[in-house]
Amino acid sequence: MAIIRNRYTDNIMFESKTLTLKELVETYKCELAGADLRHVNLAEANLAEANLAGANLAGANLYRVDLKRADLARANLEKIDLREADLYRANLKRADLEGANLEGADLEGANLEGVNLIGANLGRVNLTGVNLDRATIKGTYF
Fold first, then answer.
1. Fold of 1-142
2. CA pair distance 142, 68, nearest whole angstrom
């Protein structure tokens, strides 16, 4: 179950493993910090500058999503599909990206301090200016 909040409505609850929130999120700019969004499909959504801090997006499909300057600090991003995603200057501090697929993603200027990248796929990823201080990269594919 996902609970979504925005500044215009009360909580909106969804019960679906194959939930597609793209239109709702893009239209109403929902507050997604701490939201349980496991296995959702947000492929090609515009989530630029979104607050997803502490959200659970494990197993979600975020293929080609726009996450420029988004806050994903402490988010659970295990086994997430972030292929070709735009994470320019995104904050992923202490996020869990174990087993994530970021092939072809743009992480230029992103903050990956303390991030868990065990077993992640970083093939063809733009890592220009990325902060990887204290990141765990055991078994990561570059």
1. Pectate Lyase C-like (2.160.20)
2. 22
